[in-house]
Write a structure and sequence with these properties.
about 220 residues; alpha+beta; nine-stranded mixed β-sheet
């Protein structure tokens, strides 16, 4: 539960989709499409495709959104764009010390995906926005130590990966959680991967996050 809480905390601040953090005034209209939903589900990683052993997969989830987006705008201008979401599939995976979450969101057109990217990640200073949104969720026992955008290899178009380190005080000691949050777009799909591990605050999960994003992109609905 603690791992899921931290992943959700970072994910909601990082602009997972327009449903999470977007320009005030945007709206999402749910228009479920069976073929898109099936494709989104099939795009998710299999347990055997995760790095290491001992993984268990959680239940398949769908979080279709219908209505106005979040009011948390971080100073961005208002808009009146409408995004039509046709599918959403997500799953969480756990091992003894690590967690992975994967989400595939499908929109009606590729143009909507491009506009969503502009509204959520195209702002001048996304890291400041994320820190502002994360701050209320921290506490005396859980603090944000660092947050940065990772440098990616050449050719990583429409891809962002963020790395966060949190400290969690528990039972008289401090445990560090390292989280990677990656988002990419491909055709009509937004592809999201969250990874976390505990104990080693120098852990580097960038290569694996990019590998999983590439895997989801290869299966994204056309």
């Amino acid at each position: 539960m603690r791992r899921l809480l931290i992943l959700t905390l970072i994910g909601s601040a990082a602009g997972m989709s327009v449903a999470e953090v977007s320009v005030a005034g945007d709206r999402i209209r749910a228009a479920p499409n069976h073929a898109d939903q099936l494709a989104a589900q099939q795009a998710l990683p299999r347990v055997g495709e995760l790095s290491g052993k001992g993984w268990t997969a959680g239940k398949l989830k769908s979080n279709m959104v219908n209505g106005p987006t979040s009011a948390a705008t971080c100073g961005r201008e208002r808009s009146s764009s409408t995004f039509v979401q046709t599918a959403d599939a997500s799953r969480d995976y756990d091992s003894s010390r690590s967690s992975v979450s994967a989400d595939v969101v499908v929109y009606k057109t590729a143009t909507m995906v491009a506009l969503d990217w502009k509204h959520t990640l195209g702002m001048r200073d996304p890291l400041s926005c994320m820190r502002t949104l994360i701050a209320p969720a921290t506490s005396k026992t859980m603090k944000l130590v660092s947050l940065r955008q990772e440098s990616l290899p050449p050719g990583s178009r429409q891809t962002r990966v963020y790395r966060a380190v949190l400290s969690v005080a528990t039972a008289g000691r401090t445990i560090y959680a390292v989280l990677y949050y990656g988002i990419a777009t491909h055709r009509r799909g937004e592809l999201i991967v969250g990874e976390s591990t505990f104990g080693d605050k120098n852990a580097n999960l960038l290569a694996d996050s990019l590998r999983l994003l590439k895997l989801l992109s290869s299966r994204a609905p056309a």
